[in-house]
Design goal:
mainly alpha
Length: 124
C-alpha cells in the first residue's frame, strides 16, 4: 500500500477553483429550480382558474415573503440559464483551457449577478 497518499479529507480546507464553485452552484440551482417551477406552476394554475383566483394570486404577490420566493426562483433561473449557456459555448470548443475556463466562469458569474439584481428590481 502506498503510504504517500493524501489524507486531507476536510472539504473546508481544500481550495477549489472558481470553475468548481460555479459548477456546483449550477447543479444546485437546477435542483432548486425543480421545486421552484412547481411553485410557479401552482401560481399560474390558480391565476387562470377564475377571477377570484387571479385576484388572490395578485394579493399573494404583494406579500414580501412571496416576493422573496419569486425573486429566489428567478435568481436560480437566471444563474442556471447563464451557466448553461456557458456550458453550451464550451461544447463548441471555446474556453476549454484552464485559463479560458476560469475567465468564462468569471464572466458568466458577473452576468448572472447582474441578471439577479435586475430580477430583484423587477420583483420589488
Amino acid at each position: 500500500m502506498n503510504k504517500k497518499r493524501p489524507v486531507n479529507l476536510d472539504i473546508a480546507t481544500i481550495k477549489l477553483p472558481i470553475t468548481a464553485y460555479v459548477s456546483i452552484l449550477h447543479r444546485a440551482s437546477g435542483v432548486f429550480l425543480f421545486a421552484g417551477v412547481a411553485v410557479l406552476l401552482w401560481m399560474l394554475d390558480a391565476s387562470l382558474d377564475s377571477q377570484e383566483g387571479f385576484n388572490s394570486i395578485g394579493d399573494l404577490a404583494a406579500n414580501p415573503v412571496c416576493q422573496f420566493v419569486l425573486w429566489a426562483v428567478l435568481a436560480g433561473l437566471a444563474y442556471h440559464m447563464v451557466l448553461g449557456i456557458r456550458h453550451l459555448i464550451m461544447d463548441f470548443g471555446v474556453g476549454e483551457s484552464l485559463k479560458g475556463g476560469q475567465t468564462g466562469a468569471k464572466i458568466a458569474l458577473a452576468i448572472a449577478i447582474i441578471l439577479i439584481v435586475l430580477a430583484g428590481v423587477w420583483v420589488w
